[in-house]
Amino acid sequence: MSDPTGSLESARAPEAEAPVATAPVRPPIWRRRPWQMAAGAFLAVLAFVIFLVWSLPLGRALEPLKSPTLILVTADGKDFARRGSYKEAPVDVSKLPHHVGAAFVAIEDRRFYKHIGIDPRAIARAVQRNSEAGGVRQGASTITQQLAKNAFLTNQRSFRRKAQEALIALYLEARLSKDEILSRYLSAVYFGDGVYGLRAAARHYFDKTPETLSLGESAMLAGMVKAPSKLAPTEDLPAARARARIVLASMIEVGEITAAQARGARNVRVREGRVKLPVGSYFADWVTPQARRANERAFGEVRVQTTLDSVLQDRAEKTLRRAIARMGWANVTQGAIIAMRPDGRVVAMVGGRDYAESQFNRAVDAMRQPGSAFKLFVYQAALRDGLTPESMILDAPVEIGDWKPENHEGRYAGHDVRLRNAFASSSNVAAVRLAQQVGRGAIIQAARDMGVTAKFPDDLTLALGTAPMSLMELTAGYAAVANGSMPVTPYGVVQVAERAPRPLPKTERDQLLDLLRNSVVFGTGNTANINQYAHGKTGTTQDYRDALFIGFVGDLVVAVWFGNDDNSPMKGVAGGGLPAQVWREYMGEAMRLKAVRVAGKVVGGPPVAVQAPVDLEALPGLEVPGAEGEPGVAPETLEAPAQPTPPEPPTPEQPPF
Using an 8 Å Cβ cutoff, are 252 and 246 in contact? Predict the structure, then answer.
């Protein structure tokens, strides 16, 4: 009799001894095999690249340029400059004559409708021919690759860029039809002369729309793509025609046209559809950034209204050229003129003798010492400190440490003089004494309030105008006096006008006007006394390296500067001489040709003779600031009781200027 218990145990033994199945344990990532890690990294990078490529904006080639063409227009409606690249609205190849697209395909990518974005046959052919020639003689980029480069990449030549180009080309082929690719290519490709896209090129070279291009015109445009700058018909018409014949021959080879059609398309006439305009001028260079900020991206040409007055600009250019021409003996090689309205509207700008010769803008970009023209802000600080034009200041030698500023030719009154007389004679020692009294910080604050942004020296030499600054910002400081508010921001585009935020206190302004008027009646600016409304100040730097005059009549502020780019001295040319003469000449022309208003009333007429109680023979019209002093009327001669006749009082409802 068998044992049931033993039988049960015997029966269960095999089941109890069977191994237990467990899930395999994966090693940590840092213990995996190298090929596994490499494969994972490759897949991750590939997925990331595909994501980036797939997210590229397909319509980029159809967008306007970031910097569209700007047509700069004067305030009186005259086009005077064209800036930026030119692109018109996109084209649709399905709506163009067949020969237009066929010309580009025949010369740029014969297998365009057969490949997938890259063409292995073309690559192999290019490699063979380049190796035979010992250098790069033929490319293999398809139209799709060219679109990828134009729309998404740079022109940098590298294997990395070519790899990116190929990848994007494959993506474009996967997302777009062939006609869509060709349309985008034609809408964005460069045609020379700053022209992008077929629509812009058709207008620029033939004054046509793409829909009306002839076979010959299409061939010429297609031929330009290889070397747009060299093959543009406006640059080299014979070369453009020769290249067009090559395109026509290619179209015959691929069966798009017959030989007879090619012969009939050879005589292509160029008819430019845009009026030729200068690319630049001193004013155009300065105003373009303002114009771009004020206008959105757009197709075609954007007309921008500027503040430039064509008449005043023409007179400024001619006046400056004549002045430099007649002063060659004095080593005067460069100059600049700025004319602006008190609110900051720049109506004329000449930044040098000849823009074609030098595009450096001396009216805006040159940082030169203003000399005694800066004393306006020294005296303004003194007026804020409680002094008046009637206050007295000692005009006698002064020492500050090792520094001994001097007046011109060592001429001193030797006693106290009125502030207005010290300002008129441009006394250096008086300006330095005022700087000692009010402090360097007060002078800098006055200049800053009036819009001067220069970096000032750490000593009192700043009182004599030793801080380099632009003629533009110095002119804006004087415009603030004429305007009665501060600071004045110069501008050249109507849309970006900025109102001066703070009024200039009436008493302070009246006192500044007093000083500036005395300067042109009894002082170093006597040459500029064109009429009873003239106000201004001379400036000359050490050794006659800079000479300038800045002043205004009513609502026209004008600055004139002369000097040399290498900072070499001129021969005796000072602010009271040539600059004041040119200022008077130009202001006289401006008042004759344009409205100049004082208290709402138009004023004008020829220059007037000055009846001043001083010996005009003693006025050399030369001034040298800094350690050598500044010429002008001797302070003691200015102590005469007679004062200039003030302007007619304004009517109560109108400001003085």
Answer: no
Torsional sign, CA 253, 254, 257, 258: positive
Q: pLDDT for 346-400, tens place per residue? A: 999 999 999 999 999 999 999 999 999 999 999 999 999 999 999 999 999 999 9
**Which residue in this structure is represented by tokens 């064509």?**
310
**Which residue in 327, 326, 313 sits closest to 355, CA to CA?**
313
Question: Measured on CA atoms in the order 516, 517, 523, 528, is the torsion positive or negative?
Answer: positive
Indicate the helix (H) or strand (E) that contains 548: strand 546-553
Contact 540, 625 (CB under 8 A): yes
Nearest to 55 by CA among 171, 169, 179, 177: 171
State pLDDT tens for residues 386-436.
999 999 999 999 999 999 999 877 889 999 999 999 999 999 999 999 999
The CA distances from residue 393 to 389, 631, 632, in Å, are: 10, 18, 17
Q: Which fold has domain 314-639?
A: Beta-lactamase (3.40.710)
- pLDDT digit string, tens, across residues 157-213: 666 667 778 888 888 888 889 999 999 999 999 999 999 999 999 999 999 999 999
Cα 644-647-651 angle, rounded to 5 deg: 155
> How big is the chain, counted in residues?
657
Encoded tokens for 263? 């012969």
Domain residue spans of the chain = 55-84+279-306, 89-263, 314-639
CB 575 within 8 A of CB 371: yes
Residue with tokens 């474009």: 172
User: Encoding tokens for residue 250?
Assistant: 């290619």
What own/partner pairs with CB < 8 Å and gap ≥ 24 does 443-446 have? 443/377, 443/378, 443/381, 445/381, 446/377, 446/378, 446/380, 446/381, 446/384
* Domain 89-263 class, CATH top level: mainly alpha
DSSP states of 32-55 as a string? S-HHHHHHHHHHHHHHHHHHHHHT
Answer yes or no: same fold for 89-263 and 314-639. Answer: no
> How far is Cα 412 from Cα 610, in angstroms, rounded to an integer?
24
CA distances from 98 to 103, 179, 251, 256 (A): 9, 12, 12, 9
Q: Where are the beta strands (DSSP E) in 319-421?
A: 334-340, 346-350, 392-394, 416-418
pTM of the model: 0.79
**CA dihedral over 140, 145, 150, 155, signed as positive or negative:** negative
